[in-house]
What does this fold into?
Amino acid sequence: MKFLYKKVDNSSLIVFRIVFGLVLTLEAWGSIFTGWIERTYIEPSIHFSLIGFEWLHPLDGLGMYYLYGFMGLLGLGVTLGYYYRISIIGYTILWSYCYVIHKISYNNHYYLMILLCFIMCFLPAHKYASLDVKYRKIAKETGMYYACKFMLIFQITCVYIYGAIAKMYPDWLDGTYTSITLASKASFPVIGSFFTEKWFYMGIAYGGILFDLLIIPLLAYRKTRLFGFILSIAFHSFNSIVFQVGVFPYLSLSFALFFFPSEKIHQLFLAKKPFFNTESSSYNSQLTTMGIGMYVLIQIALPIRQHFIEDTAFWTEEAHKMSWRMMLRSKHGSTYYKVKDLTTQKIHYNYAKNLTPKQKGMLNTTPSVIWQYAQYIKHEAAKKGNTVAVYAISKKSLNRRKFQQFVNPNIDLANTPWNFFNHQPWIVPFKGW
It folds into this structure.
């Protein structure tokens, strides 16, 4: 592990800090100005947190607006390198809070931002071109340990490699999913007419796998690096414009900073900065090595946990999160509840009319939300002094197949505990590809 402690020029990390800080600011303030906070936190009458974090709730009134506004300021603090440690640690905590209190608007880049913020908490990204150096008398440095570069390259490699592996399933390989997704975008100007052509959606299917598998090697190898970067620009621009997937494409492009030679990054962005000549270092922290090793093992293990859980994650959604399973399936469903009063034996039906359309869409297809709403019905009944059993009548369609029964209608979900580490036995098995 000695290579981790070799000192190299830090130009790439300094520029990445500036770009990453801008992304953090845009993500926070963009949520305000696009109405996302209104739709996500204000309009819903109830909220679905990650299971286990039900004790956390969104702030009342305008609280979430103030929170996201403050996060934008912390993002600027990261960009400018002003009180950098406080800014990045504060953003990490607040963004993690926002991540766990709602899951209806889940996006993979929300999780990626948590991980990157966590990594950046430990990196000396403010040691040059920062207000900390200028005003707070932080020692200026032009070098960094290679471990800084390694952690960020490792993280984006996980995203791509596991993203490619997740695509290797029947409905992706035969073009079923890409044909469905692109058909919904057929009205797109100029090129939309191609989206329903088989050669196009099959090209996107296999091109997506090849891109995810090969982009890191292409960027890492000197002779193919420029081609890989141009390919990245084309790939991420297409995703950004056609699918509107937020800041992820631009965040992904910024990782190219760590693949190009430090001399090139130095010349392009920080020409006035003294260039740090590579040298070996005697520094070797066992604690740091253990920390890096543990982080690497966790990030390798989380995406493969799905293979140790019964049935397929495409159907059950179990182990879907934190596994880089991005834009993989189309799902539709219908769910309502049979509620039985255990004292009077009377039965009535609940159609979840108090949910927003997006919440209802998740309820119809996501087991954790189905279970949580059953708990909500139970708790609302308890407020009135009633004890109830709650049964979900749910059907689901995966990639436009015929609807299949999704939840066992004979299981009382209100009084069934959530299994955190294994398959939920009340999910009806998928009938196959």
Summary: The chain has a mean pLDDT of 95. Residues 330-415 form one domain.
